[in-house]
Specification:
This protein is an alpha/beta fold. The protein folds into two domains: 279 residues, Rossmann fold; 48 residues, no CATH class. The protein is built from eleven helices and seven strands. The protein has a seven-stranded parallel β-sheet, with helices on both faces. Helix 9 crosses helix 10 and helix 9 crosses helix 11. It is globular. It starts with 11 loop residues before the first strand and ends in a 14-residue tail after the last helix.
Length: 345
């Protein structure tokens, strides 16, 4: 990216959870756009987290610097107030400002059992899970956003999963992801008389490092995995979320998006950018088309029922998808649903 085309030159960004996935993609894009990027997370060189993954924040900072950007890698556990307080003090002392705060902290895949219903979950793990995935975000915003409020400028991006109002398939996962969306909304309401904007950004079917490993492919040959999962054809690289974050941070009218959930591929269409391969993925449309086809040609097999039920859970509260939700409910033979579970409207 040529110097004159770097829209965030002179700005300072913090990406919490910059180790891998969407966080790394966003950190890299912000750095390429000219921002000084503080990359934080628990996986640092010689100090791995319990995720047991090879990626580190040092790697992320190195990728930014290799592309001509500036980055600082700092090992921070965002569940620990003292560590986040020290991070805030360091940014204030070194950079004197904070323009973009991206919270992509997660690191809880090993804490979830997607086969368990709420009456079967292991209560001994709930507090650690909520601390890691939700309380860490509250701590981070509480301690870092004041840098923005003092300067009366800035953008806070909560990275979540899904821009639908329905259920995400596992009680703890749904609790946290929906709470993060509510956190951004609440912050936006309380920031309304400032020039600080808070909102949510959601990737689609993300080709994270872990997902690529799961399919046994790399970014260079990711299409080979569509044989295993046809939905992967509409997946996206972490760079798409990164480009979405840059577009938001560069938009002088970003305040109009405050408090809302924004899907990375929707922002790509709005702002006119693409994924690294020039594509504009549309995973939600592919999912809708597939379940509509399944629901229209009964009977449903086990896999078909799983897909139709999963999509019904996600969209049944969305008035724009009311007709599809009714079709899916009929295919699932759902009768006697209460008002909160029936298709909206």
């Amino acid at each position: 990216m040529a110097m004159e085309t770097k829209p965030l030159a002179g700005q300072v960004a913090l990406v919490a959870g910059a180790t891998r996935g969407a966080g790394r993609g966003i950190a890299r894009a912000l750095g390429e756009a000219g921002a000084l990027v503080y990359c934080t997370g628990r996986s640092a060189a010689g100090q791995p987290s319990d995720m047991n993954r090879p990626e580190t924040i040092d790697d992320t900072a190195g990728l930014i610097e290799q592309a001509g950007g500036r980055a600082v890698a700092l090992r921070v556990d965002h569940t620990r107030e003292g560590e986040v307080e020290s991070l805030t003090a360091r940014i204030r002392a070194e950079a004197g400002r904070l323009d973009v705060l991206v919270d992509s902290v997660w690191g809880a895949d090993s804490m979830l059992d997607w086969s368990q219903r709420f009456w079967e979950i292991d209560l001994s793990r709930v507090r650690a899970y909520v601390d890691q995935t939700l309380i860490s975000h509250v701590i981070t915003s509480r301690l870092l956003v004041p840098l923005m409020v003092e300067a009366d400028r800035g953008l806070v991006i909560e990275v979540i999963d899904g821009h639908f109002a329905g259920y995400r398939g596992q009680i703890l996962y749904d609790l946290v992801k929906s709470s993060l969306a509510r956190l951004a909304y609440g912050m936006a309401m309380e920031l309304v008389r400032t020039r600080v904007t808070a909102l949510c950004l959601s990737p689609g079917f993300l080709r994270s490092e872990a997902v690529l490993d799961h399919f046994g492919v790399r970014e260079e040959n990711w299409r080979d995995a569509t044989v295993q999962d046809p939905f992967f054809a509409q997946s996206e690289s972490p760079a798409l979320a990164g480009r979405a974050a840059v577009a938001l941070a560069s938009d002088p009218n970003v305040a109009s998006k405050a408090g809302l959930i924004h899907f990375a591929s929707d922002l790509a269409r709005e702002y006119g950018f693409t994924d690294v391969d020039g594509r504009l993925p549309n995973f939600p449309q592919m999912f809708d088309d597939k379940v509509k086809e399944l629901a229209s040609t009964p009977p449903l097999d086990e896999q078909g029922r799983y897909l139709v039920w999963a999509r019904y859970c996600q969209i049944h509260q969305d008035p724009a998808r009311r007709d599809l939700a009714r079709l899916l409910a009929k295919a699932l033979d759902l009768e006697g649903l209460g008002p909160g579970l029936a298709p909206c409207g």
